[in-house]
Each structure stands twice: as C-alpha cells, then as structure tokens.
Design a protein that fits this description.
Elements (H helix, E strand, L loop, with lengths): L21 E4 L5 E4 L2 E3 L4 H12 L5 E2 H9 L7 H16 L4 E4 L2 E4 L8 H17 L3 H13 L12 H27 L3 H14 L4 H13 L3 H18 L6 H11 L36 H12 L7 E6 L6 H11 L8 E5 L10 H11 L11 H12 L5 E7 L2 H4 L10 E6 L10 E4 L5 H12 L1 H4 L3 H10 L4 H12 L6 H9 L1 H7 L1 E2 L2 E2 H10 L3 H10 L7 E2 H8 L3 H13 L4 E4 L2 E3 L2 H12 L5 H26 L22 H10 L1 H14 L2 H10 L2 H5 L3 H18 L2 H17 L3 H18 L2 H17 L7 H16 L2 H17 L3 H18 L2 H17 L3 H17 L3 H17 L3 H15 L4 H18 L3 H18 L3 H10 L11
Parallel strand pairs: 7-10, 7-11, 8-9, 9-10
Antiparallel strand pairs: 1-2, 2-3, 4-6, 5-6, 12-13, 14-16, 15-16
Helix pairs in contact: 1-3, 2-3, 4-5, 5-6, 6-8, 6-14, 7-8, 8-9, 8-10, 9-10, 11-12, 13-14, 16-18, 16-19, 18-20, 23-25, 23-26, 24-25, 24-27, 27-28, 27-29, 27-30, 29-30, 29-32, 30-32, 30-33, 32-33, 33-34, 33-35, 34-35, 35-36, 35-37, 36-37, 37-38, 37-39, 38-39, 39-40, 39-41, 40-41, 41-42, ...
Length: 991
C-alpha cells in the first residue's frame, strides 16, 4: 500500500498565455511558487492571511473578517494596520493583478483551479467518485492515491489563528474520509491482506472512527481471520461504552452478526457499502407554526428585517427573551417560517431545554446538527471544540437559519452559532442574553388587550365571544394578557360547549384558584413557572417568593431591601439577576414588578412549606415599618415642629433620609400606590396601628388629590377592621382621618359624625393628638355648615388649641388659630380675624413650615379681602399659590385660584376673575367635592355677568344651584334669590 504522507505531487501551472504561472499549497505548509521558484510568504500571520484568501477561492474577505481569522476575540490594537501591511507585502510578491483590493477587503483572483493543491485534490476526489460509479475501482483507487499524495504533513502547518485551526480540522477530516474511500476501493479489488496493516495502524490513531473499524473487520474476515474480526467488534463496543457511553452503530453490529453467521455475501467485493463523502443536505427542521398566530406585528417586522440583513453580511443573531408563557417560541417559529426563502440551504431547530435541570449539551446538539447537514457519524469528532469547528466549516458558503429554542444562557448558545455570513440564528430564552456579543436583543412583552381578545376569539369562535365581549376582556385580563394562559383558558372553553364566557370569567376571578384553572391537557401555566423557579438559586428563590407577597403594583429597591432584610446593594444585585431570568420586570431604574400570574405563583410558593409563616409575616411587617418610618420623615420635613411624628407607632428601622422637601415629596408621590397597598394589606396581617399611622403621615396624598379614592378606601377598610377587633385607638384615628376626607369633599354631615366619634374615642383612649385633630375638624365643619352663630364651632376650636398647646405642637396650634380667624370672619369680626391669621403665620414661619405657612396666608387673604385690602390679599394668595403648586397640593392650588377670582371681582376685574375661576375648575377637577365646585361656579357666574355674558352667567348659576340642591346646602337659597333678582329666568343645566 502507498504511504499517504509522501511528498506532494507538483507540476508547474502554465497560464493560457504561456508564462509560468503561480501555484500554491495549503495541504501542508502554506507556500507559493512561480513555476519551480519558491516565493517568500513572510511571517506566520502573513501566511495566515494568504491562506485565508486562498481558501476563499476568489471571494472577497473584509478586513474585519481577516482580523478575526488571524486573532479571533483578542485582536491587537493595530490589527487593521497589520492586515494592510501583510497584504501590501504579498501584493509585491504575487503581483497587483493577483491580490486585489475591493469593497474594503482583499481577494486573490485570476488563478486557474489547478493553481491550488486543495483544488487539485478536490478535482481528483470527484473523478474518483465517477470512476467508482462506473465500476472502475482500480482507477478510483489510483485517483485517490494522487489526491492524498498532495498532503505534505499537517495542513496550514505553522499558521496561527482560529480560522486556520478550524480549516486544519476540516481538511484533516476530509483526508480521513478520502483514506476510508480509498481503502474501500482496495477491498473492492480484493486487496484484503494488504489493507489489514494500514487499517490496524489507522484504528490505533483514530480509535473512535467506526468506519475504519468496520473496514478492518471486513479485511480480517476476508483474510480468513474471523476470530480477530470479532475481537475488533468486542474491543470497539467496550471502547465506545467506556468513552462515550454508547453502543456501536447499527451497521457495525450488523457486520458482526453477518460474520457470526458466516454470511457468504461478505466474501463478495461489493460488501459493505462505503459511506459517501459529505453530501449537501437541506434540513427543514422547523416545528409547525400555529394557525391562530395573532398580532405581534412590530416584532415580526423587526425580526424579519434583522434576518434579511444576513444576506451577504456577517451572521445575524436575534435573541428573544421574556417570561415563561409569553410566546417566544411561537413568535420565533412564525418569523422563521416567513424567512425560509431567505435561507434556501435549510433550517435547523433544537429545543435546548434551558429551564430544565439538565439542558441539552452543546456537544450533543452539534452532533445532531452535523448529521442533519449530511455529515456521516464516523466523520463527527469527539470534542466540543472540534465539533463546533467542523459545524462552522460545513455551514461555510451556505445560507442556513438556526433556531435555538429555550436557551439556558449565552454559554450554551455560543458553540451553536454558525459564525459565517449568509447564515442567521434565532434564539429564545427566559433570561436576557446581554452577554451574547453582537446579538439583536428583543424583550417580548405580553399581548395588548386587543391582540389578547383576538387570540381568545380565534380559538373559542366569534359566535360565542361577540355577545360577551366584556366577559371576554375580563378573561384575558385575568390571564395577564399572557399568550399561554389565554390559549389554555380559550381551549378549556372551546371544548365545554355548555359554558359561557361569563362562567369562565367567574372561575378566573378567584385569585386563589386562578393558576389551578389555567391548565388544559399537558398545558399548564403553573408548570412552566415551576420550571423557571426550579432554576433559581436559593437566595433568588427566597427573594422571588417574599417580594411577591407585597400588594403594591411595583416595589422600589429600598423597600425590597427592607422586606428581604438585606443591604440595598445586595438586594439590587439579586433583583437584577431575577430580571435577567425574566422572573420579575424592571419598569424603571431601581423599581421592580411582577406579571400578575407570576405574582400569584410566587405567593403560592411562599405559602407552601418553603417559607415558614413567621418569615412571611416578618417580611410584610418590615415593609410596613419601612413605609411608616420614611413617610414620617417626609411629614417632618413638610411640617417642621408637628408633634404627630412623636405619636406614631414605633418602627424597627429608620427609613430613608432626604436632602430636601422636593426629594421627600418625589418619594411620597412615587410610592403612593405601593404604600397605600401596604396599609391595605395590614388589614389581613393585624398590624392595624402601624397602617393607620402610615395613613396619617401621608395625608398630603389626600389633600393633593393624588390617589384620593384609594386613600379613602384604605381608611375605610382599616376603620372596619379596627371596629371588628375592638382597637379603639386605631378606630379613633381613622374616624378623624375620615372626617377630614369627608370635609375635603364637602360631605359635611358625614364629616361631623366621624369627627364627633373620633373625639369620643380619643378621649376614652387618652389620644391627645387625635383629640386636637378631631376637635379642629369639628370647628371647621361647623364653619362650613354655617353653624357659627351658636358658638359650638368656636368652642371646638378653643378646645383643640388647648390640646395642641399641651402637646407642645406649635404647628397644630397655628392651624387652629387660622381656622379661628375664619370663624371670626364669618361672624363679622374682621380685625380679630386678621390678627389671628397673622399669629398663625408667625408660628408657621418661626417653625420653617413652608406648606402650612401657605395655608395661613390663604386664611389671611380671606380676611384681607373682607377688609378691602385687595392688593395685600392678592399678594398673600399668589404667595400661597406658588407653594401649593410646588408641594403638588392641587386642592389648595385650585382653592387659591378661586379666592383670587373673588379678589378680582371685588377689585372690579371681571376678566381676570373669570379666568381664575375657569382655572380653578380645571385644577380642582374631581378634587374638593361638588360643594366647592358649586362655589367656584357661582363666582364664575358673577364674573361673566359683569362682562355682560348673561347667558353663560345664568348657565353657571343654574349648574351651581343643581349642586347645592342635590347636597341640600344652605347656599342654594341665596342663589335662587340671585336668579330671580332682575327676572333672570332659571334654566336647568346638567351638573
């Protein structure tokens, strides 16, 4: 047998014009000749550049591609300059017509096929295939000997860089295939004995190549050495089991069986069939797309554009991430099917099973991909690196789309990326693959309400949904607009013809049962969440479960740190890892939230044996402590000297610190919904006192109009819980708070009842702060109800001052003085009203209370208006207005505009009065109640009447009268008289 490692067969290449042409070798050292004269090819890197251009066979290589070929992920800072230098030197050696520059890259052009030893070897191998097909085994064998003789040691020997290494692996694999092909031809000619020696040597060097083992068994058997042939099989089976944990392939086992049976056909030259060289195979592995695919138009268009960009460019990679059940796979498969025409050489698909305990190993996936691409088993190398290199080599020059579904992380994905132009990869993962260099990242969100309803309707049928659209919207909302949940719910309804959409909506309305309802057949929302949860580390899982207990729409990192009892930095790092795994979302820096169904699942986990009940309660208690302690700091900044903060329930922590009022108010309004939810949640945990005190500390939320209804709802809930548990202290404070809310909304009868009860309970519990607050409210309510003639209102205010003075609460005292000012004003004592208001302002200013100082100036302006000092009144109101706006107190901002309209009227400025009244209506909106709206409309009517716009004036007064009559307010009588005066005809308007 010939030695396949002998020197290469070289013949000068003559150009068509006669001169001796260039020739090159890569099947050994990279060398060049002009005729028989060796040419200098330079340094190893320069030879690497020459090899990369030769192996591209005339196609242009960009500078970036050449840098990557030579240095991979760690190019030198001057890599581009080095490439240009190497190219310039080679151009001088080879000639400017051979090494050309174009499109920012380089190419070797104008060489005949036989100029490169690799091309010659390929041509000889093709001729051998034809000869074999013609039955000319001897001729085929000769051609293969000539092809193998072109190898001169290791291909591309001494050439550095990842590209050269990948090509070495590819070329060595091809050489082994050619050797196997030649040996098969030798056996076809009956050269069994001669083949045994070479095959024995080859199997020792390549022990896991089963094709060589098969040829050796056949050669031994045909040489009369049956026992040795069977021993080769036994050795092979043991080796494969030890090294790979697999059995021999079926063809090898079948050969062993035939040898045992002494099959006469084995003696024929035609057995066994050889494995052909790698044939181009076009895999079509994409799963079927769903027929009811719905919406997602922006995603489909975005991903389609990215995949289309793979044509003639560097490989395109798109990574889709999102929570379990959001439809990543469905979207990716749909997009992949649409893109199939862009990838005519095939589409590969694999489920990497990332969420499972043992995801798919890249080595296994590469083996499967290589087989799908036509690579015979015997040609698939053992190591991950070798398989990845061969995979990229096989894909070189092809246009293939690879869909990698359910990836665990970037490390699992990297070896599976094609890495060549014209190919593309679509990846889905629950985690964010931000560390996958160059990937186009897409965060897949839930469906829009309209898309969700459309998907539900497509599955259930329009005839069942059209008549129950509202119930259908309830269903998809209960599913959190999550495609998997919607599909499960719709499928359940579709197969239950007796159910209506309303029946399904009612079942999903129960949060405790919702996850159990969302399962159908082998589909279950809880099951996919379980897989994701099972991948979390212990600290991540604890954070996921505990933070899900909080009822707020989202949570800040500081609040989360309090729940978890961890430093803020550690908490943020932990939460960001949960964001990376799509278990929580981060809608803004430092804020985190759950999808509705994931929150339910987190609570299910927390309520199982994984968390002791004590830890759950402790986490919620720490959260309430955090909100109360921080709200108390905000309150203290807004109301310096106010003693309420000394009469709040003690907390375990100190809360956040703020540098100024603005930062404190930012926190208060940003956290409004979250802290109100925490207070509401305390109804179920029994921490009523802390929750009630939290509401007192954030009463600015009510006066600002922000979350007014929510605030009132929580106050009412806590009041009910306090009554039920007999907690009179909490009951007293919540009745005082409710009295204040009713008063703000103009519900004075209800306000008086609550304030009266608060005074009674405050006295019985010895709660001095509540007594002062409730008595102050009673005085104000008496003022608003025009009950100032009997002296009760003034008496309530006098008692309130006594309580606040006993507490040393100077701002509380100032507040009552300002209300006394208004009481004096209502009873005709204008001078004393001015004096009382000034006393209150002096206290506020001495305490540095900017906001409450604005309230004092508001009260002073009323008295100054009555006394005719209109410019001073206007100045006070403008000062107060600026503060109210800065403090986001929309109620008092609107009321200041209303009082400015009154001043303008008194000053004979009807145009300004009308403008301020209109602004007041807009600012108040639904804040302050209908009674205050009626007051503003009355003033607006006066301003319009002064302007001669009688029709609009009457309309405003009619609207105000409707309000007063509905409320049975005493102002109705005066307004009726006004409408009748001058024979103005009343017309009923819509209030």
């Amino acid at each position: 047998m010939d030695d396949v490692s002998r020197g290469p067969e070289r013949r000068p290449v003559i150009s068509p014009d006669g001169p001796v042409a260039l020739r090159f070798s890569v099947l050994g050292p990279v060398r060049a000749w002009r005729g028989t004269e060796p040419l200098p090819t330079g340094s190893p890197q320069q030879r690497g550049l020459l090899a990369a251009l030769l192996l591209r066979e005339g196609r242009t290589a960009t500078a970036a591609e050449l840098i990557d070929a030579l240095w991979g992920d760690e190019p030198p800072s001057q890599g581009l300059a080095a490439v240009r230098t190497y190219a310039s030197r080679l151009r001088k050696v080879l000639g400017p017509d051979v090494l050309v520059s174009e499109s920012g890259g380089y190419a070797i052009r104008g060489l005949p096929d036989e100029a490169l030893d690799l091309a010659t070897a390929r041509d000889l191998a093709d001729l051998a295939e034809r000869a074999r097909g013609d039955g000319e085994a001897g001729h085929a064998s000769d051609l293969l000997r000539r092809a193998l003789a072109l190898w001169d040691g290791e291909p591309l020997s001494g050439v550095p860089g990842p590209y050269a290494e990948a090509q070495r692996i590819r070329l060595e694999e091809w050489r082994l295939q050619l050797i196997e092909f030649r040996l098969h031809m030798e056996l076809e000619q009956g050269h069994h004995a001669e083949a045994v020696s070479e095959l024995t040597s080859l199997t020792a060097v390549h022990p896991l190549r089963e094709q060589l083992r098969e040829l050796l068994m056949l050669a031994l058997y045909r040489s009369g050495r049956q026992a040795e042939a069977l021993a080769v099989y036994a050795d092979t089976r043991r080796l494969l089991a030890d090294e790979l944990g697999v059995d021999p392939r079926p063809a090898l086992a079948e050969l062993q069986h035939r040898i045992l049976q002494a099959d006469p056909a084995l003696a024929e030259p035609s057995a066994p069939e050889p494995e052909s060289a790698v044939a181009p195979v076009r895999p079509a592995q994409l799963p079927a797309t769903v027929p009811d695919f719905t919406g997602r138009v922006p995603y489909v268009e975005e991903l389609g554009e990215v995949l289309a960009s793979a044509n003639g460019q560097v490989m395109a990679v798109s990574a889709l991430s999102g929570i379990a059940g959001v439809g990543k796979t469905t979207l990716a498969v749909h997009v992949a099917h649409r893109a199939r025409p862009e990838f005519p050489d095939g589409q590969l698909y694999v489920d990497l099973q990332g969420p499972r305990a043992r995801g798919a190993e890249p080595e296994t996936v590469l083996g499967s991909f290589l087989r799908a691409l036509g690579t015979p088993d015997a040609a698939i190398p053992d190591s991950l690196e070798d398989r990845a290199a061969l995979y990229r080599s096989v894909l070189n020059g092809r246009r293939v789309l690879v869909l990698l579904d359910n990836a665990r992380d970037a490390a699992q994905v990297r070896p599976l990326l094609p890495g060549t132009e014209g190919c593309a990869a679509l990846i889905t993962s629950r985690g964010h693959l931000g560390d996958l260099a160059g990937a186009h990242l897409v965060d897949v969100d839930v469906l829009s309400p309209e898309e969700a309803l459309q998907l539900f309707t497509r599955i259930v049928g329009g005839e069942r949904v059209d008549g129950e659209r509202a119930a259908a919207l309830d269903v998809v909302a209960a599913c959190g607009f999550l495609p998997l949940a919607i599909r499960i719910a719709a499928t359940r309804l579709a197969v239950r013809r007796t159910w209506t959409v309303s029946v399904l909506a009612a079942k999903l309305a129960d949060e405790r049962r919702r996850l159990d309802e969302l399962q159908s057949g082998d589909l279950a929302v809880k099951a996919v969440f379980e897989l994701a949860h099972g991948q979390l580390e212990r600290a991540q899982a604890r954070a996921f479960r505990l933070l899900g207990l909080a009822d707020g729409p989202d949570i800040s990192v500081s609040a989360a740190a309090s729940m978890l009892d961890l430093p803020v930095e550690d908490t943020e790092e932990l939460l960001e890892t949960l964001v990376d795994t799509s278990m929580v979302e981060s809608p803004a820096p430092g804020r985190y939230r759950y999808h509705d169904l994931l929150r339910l699942y987190a609570r299910t986990c927390a309520e199982r044996d994984e968390e002791l009940p004590g830890e759950r309660a402790a986490a919620l208690s720490r959260l309430l402590d955090f909100y109360l302690a921080t709200a108390a700091r905000v309150y203290a900044l807004e109301r310096p000297g106010d003693r309420l903060v000394e009469h709040l329930a003690p907390t375990a922590g100190d809360g956040l610190l703020f540098v100024d009022r603005s930062e404190a108010l930012d926190w208060l309004f940003r956290e409004a919904r979250a802290l109100l939810s925490a207070a509401q949640q305390a109804v179920g945990t029994g921490e009523l006192r802390k929750a009630a005190d939290l509401l007192l500390a954030v009463r600015d939320l009510a006066e600002s109009g922000s979350e007014f209804k929510r605030y009132e709802s929580v106050v009412t809930a806590l009041l009910g819980a306090a009554v039920e548990t007999g907690d009179e202290r909490t009951e007293a404070r919540m009745r005082a708070a409710l009295a204040h809310l009713h008063s703000l909304m103009g519900r004075f009868r209800e306000a008086d009842h609550e304030a009266r009860e608060a005074v009674r309970l405050g006295g019985s519990t010895g709660d001095s702060w509540t007594m002062g607050d409730a008595l102050n409210s009673r005085g104000v309510i008496a003022l608003y109800r025009n009950r100032h003639g009997d002296g009760d209102g003034e008496a309530h205010l006098s008692r309130a001052i006594e309580y606040f003075r006993a507490l040393g609460d100077r701002p509380g005292e100032a507040a009552v003085l300002c209300n006394l000012s208004r009481m004096h004003l209502a009873t005709g004592r204008t001078a004393s009203a001015i004096a009382l208001a000034r006393q209150g302002i002096d206290i506020y200013d001495a305490m540095g209370s900017t906001l409450r100082g604005a309230n004092g100036r508001y009260a002073l302006a009323l008295a100054l208006t009555r006394s005719g000092e209109l410019d001073s009144a206007s100045d006070c109101l403008h000062q107060a207005l600026d503060v109210f706006r800065e403090s986001r107190q929309r109620l008092w901002e609107g009321m200041s505009l209303f009082r400015l309209a009154e001043v303008d009227l008194a000053a004979q400025r009807p145009t300004a009065a009308a403008a301020n009244a209109e602004r007041a209506l807009i600012t108040l909106g639904g804040i302050g109640g209908e009674w205050r709206r009626g007051n503003v409309l009355t003033v607006l009517g006066h301003a319009l009447s002064e302007l001669g716009q009688t029709g609009r004036a009457v309309a405003s007064w009619n609207e105000a009268l409707d309000v007063y009559e509905r409320l049975r307010a005493p102002e109705a009588e005066a307004l009726r008289a006004l409408l009748l005066d001058g024979q103005l005809r009343r017309t009923h308007s819509v209030a």
